[in-house]
Amino acid sequence: MKKVSVIELFAGVGGFRLGLEKTDKYKVVWSNQWEPATKKQHASMVYEARFGTAGHSNCDIASVAVASIPDADMLVGGFPCQDYSVATTLQNSKGLIGKKGVLWWSVHRILSEKKNRPKYLFLENVDRLLKSPSTQRGRDFAIILKSLENLGYAVEWRVINAADYGMPQRRRRVFILAYHQSTSLYNKLNAQRPNQWMHDLGPMANAFPISEKVMGEHSFPIEGDLVSLSETFNSGEKKSPFENTGLYFEGRVHTLKSMARYHGPKTVLEDILEDGEVPDVFYIPEKEMPKWKYLKGSKKEMRTAKNGFAYHYSEGAMVFPDAMDNASRTIITGEGGSSASRFKHVIATEKGLRRLTPIELERLNMFPDDHTLLPGIPDAKRAFFMGNALVVGVVEKLATSLYEQF
């Protein structure tokens, strides 16, 4: 079977591409990476250094003409979590337009305008997508599901914590697979009971098995057009109807709360540490230790807001230093730099307490060592990249399982 051709959006430094191409079954034919808030496009520079400039676009995806994007079998991307509400309709147009600048609608535009739509979609987002916004829990995800159904896709999703399946970081993200009605996978799904697909038969169940014990299994339709969903979906309810595992097919949601089933080897924080000498800049000076201990510690104190309002503030203690015999905590974008922080990782070594190096952060996301090393890119920016990235191993396992079902 020939390699599956792929369009990669919101490419970052190429985590999706690494996972796909590690299987040797996929080939990225076009990619886009654009960081709107900065002049220097550091992530795109890394991407081009690792994968070449051919077929790579470094401009605002909203301005890219769909005709310039080649046809491909699959579209992938980790699109940012924003407010996806529908702002307006256009008379005599093919569809709806969401809020300006919201990147989901760039995906929607590409799928809408392509004569030969990608047969498969493979998307990633933070898990709060399933329950946002707070005023209409689950509305944003319902809009995405309905808009994909309107374009001819069946959709399944799963919230996957990489560490639950032996990977080195406790990083929880929602992964979304969609199958166009022209595919054999769509027909295969049509021939199965939804709970069989979610439990055993689908690509997600094969890649990331779940326990037989599930909770909250239920089903409901998503009715109305995108405008009415935007205005009324789940209005007044405190809880999202979407559980961490689900399927949307022919207008109906089937969803359940699942737990991971995994008994294989596990990688812990200690396993990814560099063997050699680590530069002194990563070690915490003794004079800075009180700041670190304060930020990592528990607090019950009075604070004053900018407007002068005084309030009680409290928070629990963080593990300090980080436990070496467990998968790491989630990397965030502010991981880099020497300043004291509640959320940066700190480990104990014979030489003293230190922060993690860029290579160690890359390893936590299962990237190759020094993937983000490039002249002119500081360590703090390399850490930022990893805070934005996904765990490559999750993509690789899902991509392998998906290919086996084609």
Structure, described:
The chain is an alpha/beta fold and 406 residues long. It folds into 2 domains: 4-262 and 391-405, Vaccinia Virus protein VP39 (Rossmann fold, 3-Layer(aba) Sandwich); 269-374, no CATH class. It contains 12 helices and 16 strands. The protein has helices spanning 15-22, 42-51, 104-113, 139-150, 184-190, 194-201, 203-207, 226-232, 289-296, 358-364, 379-388, 392-405; strands spanning 4-9, 26-32, 56-57, 74-77, 86-89, 96-98, 120-126, 153-161, 172-180, 215-221, 245-249, 252-257, 299-304, 310-315, 346-349, 352-355. The strands form 4 sheets. The chain has a 10-stranded mixed β-sheet with strand order 3-2-1-4-7-9-8-11-12-10, sandwiched between helices. A two-stranded antiparallel sheet has the order 5-6. It has a two-stranded antiparallel sheet with strand order 13-14. The termini are close together. Residues 88-96 have low confidence and may be disordered.
Q: What is the succession of H and E elements? A: EHEHEEEEHEHEEHHHEHEEHEEEEHHH
What is the fourth-level CATH superfamily of the largest domain?
Vaccinia Virus protein VP39
**β-strand number:** 16
Average pLDDT score? 93
Strand order of the largest sheet: 3-2-1-4-7-9-8-11-12-10
Counting DSSP H or I runs of 4 or more residues, the number of helices is 12
Instruction: Quote the beta fraction.
Output: 15-25%
The level 1 CATH classification of the largest domain is: Alpha Beta
Shape: globular
In the predicted model, the low-confidence regions spanning at least 5 consecutive residues are: 88-96
CATH fold-level name of the largest domain: Rossmann fold
Q: How many structural domains in the coordinates?
A: 2
Which structural class do the helices and strands define? alpha/beta
Rg result: 22 Å
So, CATH architecture of the largest domain?
3-Layer(aba) Sandwich
Major sheet characteristics:
10 strands, mixed
Helix share, percent: 25-40%
Q: CA-to-CA gap between the ends?
A: 10 Å
